[in-house]
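WARN no homologs supplied; continuing
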Amino acid sequence: MQIQYKPRRGWLATIFQIEILQGMALTLKRLFSRPITRQYPDERPQIRLGFRGQHALVRDPATNDCKCIGCMRCAVVCPSRCIRIQSRKGKEPNSRRVIDNYRIEALRCIYCGFCAEVCPVNAIVLTEFYEYSSLDRASLHFTKEQLLANWDQFAAQLDMPADAYVNPFWRPRGFAERDLPAPKRLPVSPEWSGEQQVVGRQWQRYLPPEHA
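OK structure emitted
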């Protein structure tokens, strides 16, 4: 990355305040141009894959329940501490944990997507659905049942089977496929996978031989 600094201002530019004149010229130019404001809801934006919208818990078609295994990674990594999980051990030996409650306080969420990135089984997702305003706070404190209902509502609007949907945040950037758990080795565009955008202390492992 190359950093280019602004050239030093001369005494003429200091006297005549060139920056202010440039700003006024830009203001006058935009004053007589066509407005670019989108007339929502008559004109709806095109929502791209990976937009961070309404929270949902992905429903497992085999069990008809959420895919969550109670590892608590999403609650630990959440910077706003808006995720609360209550789980218990299953009755059968070697069975996964049973999720009694999974709560997300959407009003505190900053929509960073960390929860979806760290989930090893892709159980949590920020869907591309964004029209879910409310007149009361309680309806934006999502419970497990509400989060599953959010997924059902989102899946019904997809133009593909729900099990074929892949959210880009399920495939973290900056990691080679060999370093990801099996459920996160998902087919995404090369731009999103970003295997060349290696981060962390192990970056030297990915250098070409001539630079190692």
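The two ends are 20 Å apart (CA to CA).
OK
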